[in-house]
Amino acid sequence: MRKYIRFLVPLMIMLIAVMLSGCSDQYVVLDPKGPIGESQKDLIWITVWLCAIILVPVLILTAIIVWRYRDKKDNKAGYQPNWEHSTKLETIWWAIPIIIIAILATVTIKYTYDLEPSKPLESAKQPITIEATSLDWKWLFTYPDEGISTVNYLQIPEDTPIRFRVTADQAMNSFWIPQLGGQIYAMSGMAMTLYLQADEVGDFLGMGANFTGEQFAKMTFNVKSTSDADYRAWVDSVKQTSPALTEEGFKELKLPGSSEQQTFSAFPKGLFDQVVMQYVGPNGIDAPNSGKKSGPVHDAEGGHDTQSPTTTDEAKS
Amino acid sequence: MFKEFWDFLMNDFFITGDPLILGAQVSIGLSMVAIVIALTYFKKWRWLWTEWLTTVDHKKIGIMYVIAALLMLFRGGVDALLIRTQLAVPQLEFLHAGHYNAIFTTHGVIMILFMAMPLMFGLFNIVVPLQIGARDVAFPYLNSLSFWLFFFGAMLFNVSFVIGGSPDAGWLAYPPLSELSGSPGLGQDFYIWGIQISGIGSLASGINFVVTILKMRAPGMKLMQMPMFTWSVLSSSITIMFAFPILTVTLFLLFIDRYLGAHFFTLDGGGNPMMYVNLIWMWGHPEVYIVILPAFGVFSDVVSTFSKKKLFGYKSMVFALMSISFFSFFTWLHHFFTMGSGADVNAFFAVTTMLIAIPTGVKVFNWLFTMFRGRITFSQPMLWTIAFIPCFVVGGMTGVMLSVAPADFQFHNSYFLIAHFHQVLIGGVVFGYFAGLYYWWPKMFGFKLHDGLGKWAFWLWNIGFYVCFMPQYALGLMGMTRRFNEYNFDLGWQPLNIVSTVGAFIMGLGFIFQVWQIAHSIKFLKKEKSGDAWGEGRTLEWSIPSPAPMYNFAHLPEVTSSDEWWEEKQRRAKGIQPKAPGPLEPIHMPKNSGIPFIMSVFFFIAGFGFVWHWTWMIVPGLIGVACCLFARSFDYDPDYYIPVDEIERTEAALKGVR
Fold first, then answer.
1. Within a domain: residue B624?
2. Can you tell me the ipTM of this complex?
3. Do A194 and A116 contact (CB within 8 A), yes or no?
4. CATH number at residue A148
5. Does residue A49 sit at the B interface (CB-CB below 8 Å)?
6. What range defines the domain where residue A134 resides?
7. The whole model's pTM is what?
8. Which residues form a coiled coil (chain A) (predicted)?
9. Where does A108-161 show beta strands of DSSP type E?
10. Which of the four pLDDT bands, split at 50, 70 and 90, describes residue B410?
11. Do residue B175 and residue B33 come from a single domain?
């Protein structure tokens, strides 16, 4: 045994060293650039320390016990084969985890309400709304306030709350910009709200975090946070230089496949809400398309979204 | 006509055009031919049929479960190594995206449903009747049916790899991706029917063991005197009884969506994909406790045996098992805190999830204090148990971190999560079942596994595990998301991914050592003469010869303590001889039956027909199932008695061996 432990300990230390030696700015979750991510980082550290209160003593205790009570002839440690119960001891270790979990639960509940993703951020500035739509397999971002739209690229002004509205055209995705804060699911037929904010200028990684099919890995995007002035300049330049996204263009964009970054000077009005509402039947409720029409499989192909210009071709396959 | 058929075979039926899969197809074909030739050459067909395929003996069924599980571990492991190879280097073009997606899907399904579950049922079958002093399970025929349903379900799932196409929508197949709109291929149907057929078997096994444990205990054995492994089987089986029907219903609804165009989980027509996500996790979360609880049971028995000391805090342990199994039904939502259910709901499920840490923590303390003031020998089962404790404690702590709902918004679906559940599933379930296999191996086969090779395997698995999964925690904090089939150079994920891949291959090497260990131990077989192979056995299974005779106990034991065999040995050491047993009586045993095997073949046929929408195949399949049910109903002669002279002969022969 002894030689194995001697061999294992340096290995573990090396391993930890390797892990910690990576540039710390790569640990995006622990290096947040916005208030939400900041709170979540604090919460993560609180959890780590609370857990460590139990973890460290237990690991040490394990090592000591395994070592001290190994079966050796000259082992002088006590041996009590029938000692099987101690109300005092057992009360202690029912109590310790209960106390730790009670503390952690209290902290968690408080943070859960504080960090509810749809809760607006406190700020002197008016929030900007950006709508994020997960398509197969690219992100479409529409800026209703500016009338512009982008694909796989986000530009935002620093120190301004961003109100993201998030949905998916088809498969469920998750919208995640680790350095700004936690993710929210992008689900078809629903518009989720997520408030985030960047406190400084910089480029951040964004991605789809829930598997959506074949080219899911291509759904990463760049988030560029700039000064207000740069943001305005960027919006103006997009308006002047980029093409408009038309209904036709959107239909093409929706076709399965990955995409480069794109910018559009305009997009069809209410596009995001159309995507959200596309599965709602003509009666305004989620009724099966035209009601009576029966028959297997191709049912889904019916006129359920006749009011919507964005007919899906899902059932043809 | 022939050409059309050929085109169908080559274009639709078989998966063609991938060298990896072609290699697998050829090797599967060759090994099947080799098996048939070997069976014919050695004239073993009748032996195979009478001794194994038709057996209702719990010990043989257990062995078949274990063999099937190890084969599935091999396949799931190869999947894992392919995944890790693809991720070793940024933008590697080793597996294309579709293939990669299929591989991580099958890796997940196989490891949980077709590796962990059968290995667990294998241990249930081998150990429980022996531990409680019974001669078989409560429903031996149903037990056989459970195994064959599992087996043919697993085969149906696995066949999709070479025929028709593998599922590729993730191991829990969230709609709408798993609906016809997202997965028009056949893979998803193989998924549904493979799991559905084996799921019936799992549910039946759960019921079987609950009844066995409640009704078949040896005279005198009170519930609070059962060995801890048996308690863990009871808690796990009760969980199965409540959880598996949810899985069956959920997948059935998904099947109706896909097959008949219903709208339970579709986007349109009033369907709600999130309903599926809720339902599947109402099964899925209890499922992970179903597989971990018996591992806890194994650790309890092993730790007490190899510390030569009574299990500390028996009542706490029982209470902890049962409360974990109860609370496991109230935590499902923590798998999707990010669905936006609101702070009330998230807070509730965050707290229920954390609650599970309490009984689990208590169990760890009790294991530690079982060793405390004991005498620990580092046999193979004990090594795995000792390695389990730190591994599982760390994994449990990261689990608590994940349960903190607002923090989970940053961990969810990242490699932090991947590292967490692999740590509890490998460090907990796999280490636990390995400990159990090594522990009860001599009871199953009558010989021990080679020690030196086993230690090699142990260290390779352990080192490999940490090298593979510790970097993944870091990768998660770097923002690496699960199920990415490739990543860019500029993300800085490269070094740790390579480390992780190396770790995976070290574990693969560990598995090879285990195969070698088994082969070596068979070749240089040293017959285990005593039934009490470790010399320190505490429970009834060690009081009978290894392997146990068909009827297990010639005389049913009288039980007065939870460590009955150990107490008995203490009494004998003091010179108190056991009460002389009465005369032998004929033993009532179930007859072998081929119906479970045949019925499961018909289930397979029907399932295969459903996958392909072939009515001509579905109908005979279902008729076959019905006929088997019918035939069994009119079988008035399912049991027999072993006459006393035969028992005497068997016992005398076993004594001779001793």
1. no
2. 0.92
3. no
4. 2.60.40.420
5. no
6. 128-276
7. 0.92
8. none
9. 128-135, 138-143, 148-151, 153-157
10. very high
11. no
